[in-house]
Design goal:
single chain, about 650 residues, alpha+beta, 12-stranded mixed β-sheet, 5-stranded parallel β-sheet, 12 helices
């Protein structure tokens, strides 16, 4: 049974020797790249193209053509290869089209050696792009899968290769296009003829038509991308101490029982340390859940759309509007819809069951910074010696299976500030609480977050400042104040607000000047070189125009030099400022003190429900942790 994929959807590969068939209607260049665990192409020797068509386990066409067949043997690729990307690009300098906008949607299919289709994908939505990553074959827990990518590049082949981390990608792109233009050609066989069924395209070989539950509509929700992109370009997620060479492969998983998937293993991802492997594994679980849910939702949409079409068709015939004929037609259409949805749900439950099993193995293995408050690691807390890679700030889940929660990890040092929304959002939990309760809960969330940050940093490497203009958060701030982890009491009144902001603004200026002048080790003696966290409560109360400008400056420039912002605020309270504060809100990652479905992923645009970490249960846990932090800080300052 063929799986007709949509952008972002994946499908398991039943065997490792495959053929990838491409049909574009006009001559295109077909190639492939090999990538490591991070998807990086290490060099030109990992690119199969018309000028160098053969690699271990891979062979591509020697010339541009309307139809291609690419041979793949995944068992023969190097052991450190975890991804194989199939690329399509338009040739240049031959008088052909300059973008895919003028072509019919390219069609790619993964077939077995006997010609039966495993999966197919029609690449829709291309416009000004002249190169596209069509498919990705990737290794996950020892098994290979195929993913429909459809990521286009207006900058052509050069931009595509550079985006995959290839050194001198522009030079290799020129070499490939010159080889195509020079006529290094041989004939390639065309794939089987295709037939069309409405707006969907399939091949004759082995295609069951629209009955498959994995045949969602061709229009995707969002183009997949490996990392979020900001207006200034890709965000750099590299850890400051992270090595730049390729990490070792993940540990080998225990052998699977015949006919059963391999059992999950904690740390089943690449990385230089167990913490990095677990971080990458959690990221992979998030990605897998996003894509399997996208496949399910698309299949449901397709089934319901087909039901509407069949009902309209039945009702358009006057003979079916009365009597048993119309009733039977409607019942048959609904039965088909229910069967398609049930089949899609079965696939979803299978994938979720595997992710649940993986979660049950991964959660107990998470280090302190990734663990929930109820983890035994927090009960047996000891001050760390190194800065962790990331910090857990909550959990994420989707409505299809709310019991499957994915840890929400943010990289350290923080790359952007946090906004804890104390307003009455549209979530059910927020609407059931009054404004005073929400504000207190939001401040409790900020204090718990600050406590986690203080606890996971080594002694003396993290400092917390608090601005509470009206002194309204004294109860929530009590754990920080009484433990002694704050160097000074929370700032109150307009004078306190101005003093703290002026001091942190000066620190940002000094560090920026030192770094730009190449004298980062020549800071004045009074400058605290530790990471700084500023908690602002009840914004904009107590802020004049100067203080507001300084706060925006800290939000924009602070993270790059170790000054971070956590704002507890209701946007409605600052509505008098109008659009002046829009850049401030956009620069911060919004989280909520109650569950709320406001976070969207970068692959398929799901609205994920964010759930904050539960505060430490009643007892001495938080007090004991902060007491150890305060004692270590006092010893460090001596």
């Amino acid at each position: 049974m063929t799986a007709e994929l949509v952008r972002g959807q994946n499908h398991p590969l039943p065997q490792t020797r495959l053929e990838i068939r491409v049909s574009a209607g006009r001559p295109v260049v077909a190639g492939a790249t090999l990538g490591d665990e991070q998807g990086t192409v290490r060099g030109a020797e990992w690119v199969a193209h018309p000028g160098s068509p053969q690699l271990p386990g891979l062979e591509v066409s020697r010339q541009a053509a309307a139809d291609h067949r690419l041979a793949v043997d995944l068992e023969a690729v190097p052991e450190d290869v975890h991804r194989v990307n199939v690329l399509l690009a338009l040739p240049v300098g031959v008088g052909g089209p300059v973008s895919f906008a003028s072509l019919a949607a390219p069609f790619v299919a993964v077939t077995a050696l006997d010609g039966s289709e495993v999966a197919s994908y029609t690449i829709t939505g291309l416009d000004a792009e002249s190169a596209v990553v069509a498919l990705e074959l990737y290794r996950r827990q020892g098994a290979w899968k195929v993913r429909a990518v459809g990521q286009g590049y207006a900058g052509g082949l050069a931009e595509m290769l550079t985006d995959q981390g290839l050194p001198r990608g522009h030079e290799l792109a020129s070499t490939i296009l010159e080889a195509v233009a020079g006529g290094l050609a041989r004939s390639v066989s065309a794939p089987p003829p295709r037939t069309t069924d409405g707006d969907r395209v399939r091949t004759n070989a082995g295609s069951p038509g629209p009955e498959s539950a994995q045949q969602p509509p061709a229009t995707p929700q969002a183009a997949p991308q490996q990392q979020p992109v900001s207006e200034g370009g890709p965000v750099d997620y590299a850890h400051p101490r992270r090595q730049t060479t390729a990490p070792p492969p993940p540990p080998a998983a225990p052998p699977a029982q015949p006919g059963q998937p391999a059992p999950p293993v904690a740390g089943d991802a690449s990385g230089w340390s167990m913490d990095e492997r677990l971080y990458n594994q959690v990221w992979g679980m998030f990605e897998d859940l996003a894509r399997t849910t996208a496949a399910y939702r698309s299949a449901v949409d397709f089934a319901e759309s087909r039901l509407e079409q069949e009902l309209d068709k039945a009702l358009s015939d006057p003979r079916n509007r009365i009597g048993n004929a119309g009733t039977n037609a409607r019942e048959q259409a609904r039965a088909k819809c229910d069967a398609l949805i049930a089949q899609a749900r079965e696939v979803l439950e299978r994938d979720v069951a595997q992710l649940l099993a993986e979660s049950q193995v991964v959660e107990p293995a998470l280090p302190l910074a990734y663990a929930r408050w109820d983890s035994p690691l927090w009960a047996a807390y000891r001050l760390p010696m190194e800065i962790p890679m990331a910090l857990r700030v909550g959990d994420l889940h989707l409505p299809e299976r709310p019991d499957l929660r994915i840890p929400m990890l943010v990289r350290l040092p923080l790359e952007r500030g946090l906004w804890i929304d104390s307003g009455r959002t549209g979530s059910e939990a927020a609407l059931l609480m009054d404004q005073a309760q929400l504000k207190q809960l939001a401040m409790d969330t900020a204090v718990a977050l600050a406590a986690r940050l203080l606890a996971v940093y080594p002694a003396g490497e993290f400092t917390v400042h608090v601005i509470d203009p009206a002194g309204s958060a004294a109860g929530s701030l009590a754990p920080l104040v009484t433990s002694g982890v704050l160097d000074e009491p929370p700032a109150t009144g307009a004078g306190g607000v101005a003093a703290v902001l002026a001091r942190l603004t000066q620190r940002v200026d000094l560090v920026q000047m030192a770094v730009r002048g190449g004298a980062a080790d020549a800071l004045p003696p009074g400058v605290d070189t530790a990471e700084q966290l500023l908690i602002v409560n009840d914004f904009p109360h107590g802020f004049d125009d100067r203080a507001l400008t300084q706060l925006r400056y800290l939000a924009d420039e602070g993270p790059s030099v170790g000054v971070h912002l956590v704002m507890v605020a209701d946007r409605e309270d600052a509505s008098a400022y109008g659009p002046v504060l829009d850049p401030l809100w956009r620069s911060l990652l919004r989280i909520t003190p109650v569950p709320d479905d406001h976070l969207a992923d970068p692959w398929v645009g799901h609205a994920w429900t964010y759930e904050p970490l539960q505060a430490p249960p009643a007892g001495r846990l938080l007090a004991d942790v902060l007491a150890q932090v305060a004692s270590a800080r006092r010893s460090w300052h001596r």
